[in-house]
Each structure stands twice: as structure tokens, then as C-alpha cells.
Specification:
The protein is mainly alpha-helical. It has two domains: 12-222, no CATH class; 245-460, no CATH class. The protein is globular and about 65 Å long. It is built from 21 helices and no strands. Helix 7 packs antiparallel against helix 8 and helix 10 runs parallel beside helix 15. The longest helix is centred in the middle third of the chain and has 34 residues, at 247-280.
């Protein structure tokens, strides 16, 4: 069908307006907690970037020898971050940003949707970190500059694939080419010493743009309400395994099994990356993997996306309890039973990977698991009671951070980093003990059915 609609002169202002509004919503959200989280995330990535840039600028012989490995680790982190936000735990859909009745062409709607899709918190903070690398090591400007090109190429590739999925073109030939382009990117990142590495790198970052232009010309006219399918969803029946569980566990797993399974998959993938980096560096995985190892080794992911707002996810059961009896020990028992099971699975998985694939000299890290589990569970109880939030869009990774308190999430990341990077065990034990014992305050408030906390929790879960 010919793309007959054209952009009217009265709508010439809509693209800058939408971009400015989207950028402001991401950079400066309405909620104070989300603003704080954005600034802290930005500061952490800028510090990471500055540290990496200073490492490059030091010019030591060790840096020169391991520069390809460092660059490969940086590029791999950029690729994983770019794809993770769009495909896990559920697909981030591509939707038409402009109503059909406005005189805007379907192809221009595709371009607008891509530009709006490009502006995300993760991409902006990654770009800021790469800018810090450039400022700290201007002699190695090619490293962060090419990483930015890689970030944009991954964004284009992700949008191309999701646009095909939105149009239900499962057997379109471009889908196979997109998957081949993704394979080329992954292969190029994993082989920093391969032949024709520079030429293949340029091909890998330019190919998604060429395929995107072909897709825009070929399928752009079909990006309208006439051709976009209507989403229908049918609730799936409970499995036999779920039917055998207690009602509270069944309600919990039905609500959060997708983000929990995605978190476990993410944990295994990053642990595998650390093991691979250790093999590339003669068993010394700390050269490239230490910066994020603690996030997947300690049980941070399940808390940061689910269990620090457990009562928000279990709002129906919690609202019923609050309405009938108020704050009771049963709410504490619910938190303890559910969180203990999830944390136990994470800790066993981390311990198994550490014992199986890491050298014996690193087995002392097993002692961090009970410290992290107890202290993170304490912070999760604080978040579930005092910073409960209504849960929306459980299946979208971009919305997951909005389902939990940003302040509590950042606190958990900082706590995990402190437990991992602090060199003195007595200080680790003291920090974990203080954070764990702080749970006495919310526990006592629940047991005495504190009125302020009861009303705050009721408002938080929007009961």
C-alpha cells in the first residue's frame, strides 16, 4: 500500500516536543525517589567510567598487555545492557506514538517511535559513563567513541526486531538478517584478537542501520492501526506444581515468576561471563569481572526487582489482613517464608557456581552469602513495609524498577558493594550485623500494630 499520508505544516513541532517530554520524563521523573535513583545511578556509572579512563591513562605495561580484554569487557557490558532492557523479562513493545487520524506518515511514525524508544535511563547513564572515560583518557578516545557506536547499533537492532514482532512478521526475511547481525556483534565482541577485527567491527555497527533503513522502506507503511494487530491475552491455568503449594506461595509465584526466572537467568549469564573472562586472563577473573560480580553473586537481583516490595506484589492478601486484623505477626511470617525460599535458591546457585568454576583461593567468598542474605532481607523488610508501592507491568523490565522503591534499591546495591569491596572482615561483620539488627524496628512496629505504619502500608499498596 502506498504511503500517501504526509506531514502537515501544523504538526512540524510535534517531534521536538515529544523528544523533549520523553527526555525530561527519563532524566527528571516526578517521584523524588526515582530522581534520587537516577542521580545515584548516574554518579556510579560516571565514577566507573572515570576509573576505567584513569586505568587506561596510566599507561602501565599491564594495561597495554590487557587492553583488548578490557575493551572487550566494556563492549560486552554495553551490549548486554542494551539488549537486557528491551527483551527481558518480557518484550518491550513498539507502539505507534502518534494517533492515526493525524496527518503523519507511517514511516515518520516509525522514526518517531525509534527516537522515543532510544531515550531510556540505561542508555543515558551508559553514555554518561562513556563520556567520563573519554574525559579521563583522551588519548584512548577511540575506545569510548566506538562503544557509543556499539550502543546505538544495539539499540537499532533491538528496535528492528521488536518492530517485526509488533507487526507479526515472524517469517520475514529481515528477521533472519537481524539475527545474523546480532550474531556478528556477539562474535566480534568475543574475539578481540581475531583477524580483520577493526573492519568487522565497523561492519557490525553499520549493518543494523542498513537493515533498519531497509525495514523502514519495506515495512514502514504498515506501521498503522490498520495493520498493527490487537493484543489479546488469555489467563493461563495454574500448573499442577502451583496447585500443590500453599495459597500464599501460589499467589506469589503467579505474580513474580517471570521476573524471578529472568533474574536467575541474568545471574547465570553474568556469572558465565565472569568465568569466561577468568579463562581469558589465565584464571584471574578480577581483572574485568570484579566490577559487577558482587551484584550477581549476592542475592541482590530478587530483592531489587521483587522482594523489597513484597507486600506490594502480594497486595490482595496484605490488604485483606490489614482490613480484618491490621498489622499482625502473620505478615512477618509471610515475608520470612517467601523471602527465605527465594534467597536460599539464589545462595545455593551462587555457591555451586563458585565451587565448580572458580579457583580454591576464591572460596572464602562463600562467607559473604549469609552476611548478604541477612542484611539484604532486613533492608527488604524495611522497603516492603515503609516504601510499599502499587505494582504495574510486572512483565516489562523497564517498569520493574518502578515497582520497588528506588531508594531501597540503591541502598541494597551500595550495601552489597560495601560487603564485597571492604577488605576487613571485622568491618563486614559489623556492617552486616548493624543492618540486620535494624529490622528490629519494623518488627516491633508490626507486632504492636502501629497505626502510622498501618496507614502508610495501606496507602502504599493502594488498597
Amino acid at each position: 500500500m502506498a504511503d500517501r499520508a504526509t506531514l502537515g505544516p501544523r504538526l512540524g513541532h510535534f517531534l521536538p516536543y515529544l523528544l523533549r517530554r520523553r527526555l525530561w520524563a527519563v532524566v527528571w521523573p516526578a517521584a523524588a525517589g526515582e530522581r534520587t535513583a537516577f542521580l545515584l545511578t548516574l554518579a556510579v556509572l560516571v565514577l566507573y567510567g572515570a576509573g576505567f579512563g584513569l586505568l587506561l591513562a596510566s599507561g602501565s605495561s599491564e594495561v597495554a598487555d590487557n587492553l583488548p580484554t578490557y575493551v572487550a569487557g566494556l563492549n560486552a557490558a554495553v551490549l548486554l545492557s542494551a539488549f537486557l532492557v528491551d527483551f527481558l523479562p518480557a518484550l518491550r513493545p513498539v507502539t505507534r506514538p502518534i494517533p492515526d487520524h493525524l496527518p503523519v506518515s507511517a514511516r515518520l511514525s516509525v522514526v518517531t517511535a525509534f527516537l522515543l524508544d532510544l531515550i531510556t535511563l540505561r542508555r543515558l547513564t551508559l553514555a554518561a559513563g562513556l563520556l567520563a572515560v573519554l574525559l579521563a583518557a583522551p588519548r584512548y578516545a577511540a575506545v569510548p567513541a566506538f562503544a557509543v557506536l556499539l550502543l546505538l547499533a544495539a539499540a537499532v537492532l533491538s528496535f528492528n526486531v521488536r518492530l517485526l514482532i509488533a507487526l507479526r512478521r515472524w517469517r520475514h526475511p529481515l528477521l533472519g538478517l537481524h539475527l545474523a547481525s546480532a550474531g556478528l556483534l556477539a562474535w566480534w565482541v568475543s574475539t578481540p584478537a581475531g583477524a580483520y577485527h577493526a573492519a568487522l567491527g565497523w561492519a557490525a555497527v553499520l549493518l543494523p542501520w542498513a537493515l533498519g533503513a531497509a525495514e523502514l522502506y519495506w515495512l514502514g507503511p504498515y506501521f498503522s492501526a490498520r495493520y498493527l494487530p490487537t493484543e489479546t491475552s488469555a489467563p493461563a491455568g495454574a500448573s499442577q506444581l502451583l496447585a500443590r503449594l500453599a495459597p500464599e506461595s501460589r499467589a506469589y509465584l503467579r505474580k513474580v515468576r517471570t521476573p524471578l526466572l529472568t533474574g536467575l537467568a541474568f545471574k547465570l549469564i553474568l556469572l558465565g561471563v565472569v568465568v569466561w573472562l577468568g579463562g581469558e586472563n589465565g584464571g584471574n577473573w578480577r581483572k574485568s569481572g570484579s566490577g559487577y560480580f558482587y551484584l550477581v553473586f549476592l542475592p541482590v537481583i530478587s530483592f531489587n526487582y521483587v522482594n523489597s516490595n513484597l507486600y506490594g506484589f502480594m497486595s490482595t492478601l496484605v490488604a485483606n489482613e490489614l482490613h480484618r486484623l491490621g498489622l499482625t505477626a502473620r505478615l512477618l511470617g509471610l515475608y520470612g517464608r517467601v523471602v527465605a525460599a527465594v534467597v536460599a535458591v539464589e545462595c545455593v546457585l551462587s555457591a555451586a557456581v563458585l565451587l565448580a568454576f572458580f579457583p580454591r583461593a576464591d572460596w572464602y567468598l562463600l562467607a559473604l552469602l549469609p552476611l548478604g542474605a541477612l542484611s539484604l532481607a532486613s533492608l527488604g523488610l524495611w522497603g516492603s513495609l515503609y516504601y510499599a508501592k502499587p505494582v504495574k507491568k510486572v512483565g516489562e523490565l523497564g517498569s520493574m524498577r518502578k515497582n520497588v522503591s528506588s531508594l531501597v534499591g540503591v541502598g541494597m546495591v551500595l550495601l552489597a558493594a560495601a560487603l564485597y569491596f571492604v577488605p576487613w572482615w571485622w568491618l563486614r561483620l559489623l556492617l552486616a550485623a548493624l543492618v540486620t539488627l535494624s529490622a528490629v524496628i519494623p518488627v516491633r512496629a508490626v507486632l504492636r500494630n502501629d497505626g502510622n505504619l498501618r496507614r502508610r502500608l495501606w496507602r502504599g499498596i493502594s488498597a
